[in-house]
Every structure is written in structure tokens, then in C-alpha cells.
Amino acid sequence: xxxATLADRAVIDIAGPDWRGFLQGLLTxxxxxxAPGEIRFAALLTPQGRLLxxxxxxxxxxxxxxxxxxxxxxxxxxxxxxxxxxxxxxIAPAGDxxxxxxxxxxxxxxxADPRLSALGHRGYGLGPTGAPGDYEAxxxxxxxxxxxxxxxxxxxxxxxxxxxxxxxxxxxGCFVGQETTSRMKRRxxxxxxxxxIAFSGPxxxxxxxxxxxxxxxxxxxxxxxGHAIALLRLDRMTLDPRRLPDGRSWEPDLPGWMG
Length: 259
What we know:
The protein is of the alpha+beta class. It has helices spanning 19-24, 73-84, 132-142, 147-150, 178-187, and strands at 3-5, 9-15, 39-45, 51-60, 63-69, 90-94, 98-101, 111-112, 121-124, 192-198, 209-212, 215-224, 227-233, 242-243, 251-252. A hairpin with a 2-residue loop joins strand 11 and strand 12. The radius of gyration is 19 Å and the shape is globular.
């Protein structure tokens, strides 16, 4: 079975009697109904509705665990601590490794990725080790964006496909950044989305400009041979001709999960 340990992910433990109400008012995902052993995909936004940190929330017996980008773990802890005020909540880094398995069946104790079933399962402190590059190629082939694609305070969660990947509960009530997020969804005002593209040969550098009919149509975010995730202008991505910076052609390669 393909598997990998994701060194770019880390874990935070959340405990204390107020943990549910505390996170419920912050995250894009509902945690009031989160059961032990259940995993949900979520985000913490700025008050203006921009995406700060993506995370998986995993229910535990006396709290929950947050699976987040390793490079942002300390900043996320600081942000949560700032919001804590008088809430009886304990926030602490954990040392567990984050692992992934894909191509069923998964080993016991692993949790199905809530974004997309084809992404496989996630595990915490369970092993095994493996090559993360294989998982990145698998993710790119499925067209699913990740932390490297949306940055920090640079994209809206709907631009980053959180609404299509089960990362936002629009029925849960208030959370930080909810007003902007709900308005964008309700009015359909998104001009751009992270989406996969296909091309022949080696990948362009991240940040490379995509052209369509001579107009700027997007920007490469992460890539491998033949595949990339790009922030695409929805009104330009089908214009012809479509060119990479070196003149090669590219095509939008929208997967079924994008609708």
C-alpha cells in the first residue's frame, strides 16, 4: 500500500472544558458535533475572511487534535492563544508524526481524508514512513490544492476550494471571517479558483504566469511533471491559445469533484 510520513505537517492538542465552544466560534467547520475518532477539514480565517491556516480537526476523548502545516504550527498556537481570553482551554504542541496511506484498504486506526476519498487516509503517531513526494504526485494528479498553493492571508477559502472539499460548514453559525465567506458563496462573486492544469514535460517554476489569448489567466502554485495547481481566472481559462512562459500549451484539467 502506498504510504508516506508528511514532515510538512504537525499536530496540536486542544483540551479543557471549553474547547468545543472556543473552536466553534473560530473555525469554518462545525466542531460541536465532532465525535472521538472523527476527522473534519477546516480553516482559520482573518476577520476579513482571508485564509490563514488550513487544518484537520480530529476528535479525541477529552478534546481534539489539530493537524496543521508544520511551518505554521507556532503561529497557529499564538493565534489561538490570543483568542482564548478566559476560555478554559489548553493548547499544546504534540510530537506525533502525520502519515498518509492511499489506495484502499487502510490499516486500522487510520481516518478517511474528509476532503476527497481518493486522497486516502491520515494517521497520527502510527507510522509508517515513506516518500512524501509520491503523495504529492498523487495529490496533484487528483487536482487537490494544499497549503503551499494558497499561502497565508493571500486567498479566500472559496478561491482555495474549501467549499468543494468539505472545509466550510455554511450552516454552523458564526465564525471568524464568516460574513465575507458566506457573501462570496451566496453571490457567486469568485473571479479565480485554484484548479489543476495539464501540460507536457517538466513543470514551470511556482509563480510562473499563465497566458490565454495573450491575457494573464493565472499563476502556477505547485507542480510536477505534466500537472500543476494554478490560481486561474475563471473568465479566461478557456480562451485560446493558452501558453506557459516558455511557449508550451496548457489546458485546464478540472476533476469531477469541482463540479
